[in-house]
Amino acid sequence: MALSFKKIADEKLQPDSFEFNKENKKKAIEIMKNYPQNYVESSIMPLLTLAQEQFGGWIPKKAMEHISQFLNVSEMKVLELATFYSMYNLSPIAENHIEICTTTPCMLRGAEEILEKCKKKLNLEVGEYNENKKFSLIEVECLGACVNAPVAKIGNHYYEDLDEDSINIMLDNLEDGKK
Question: What's this model's pTM, rounded to 2 decimal places?
Answer without folding.
Answer: 0.80
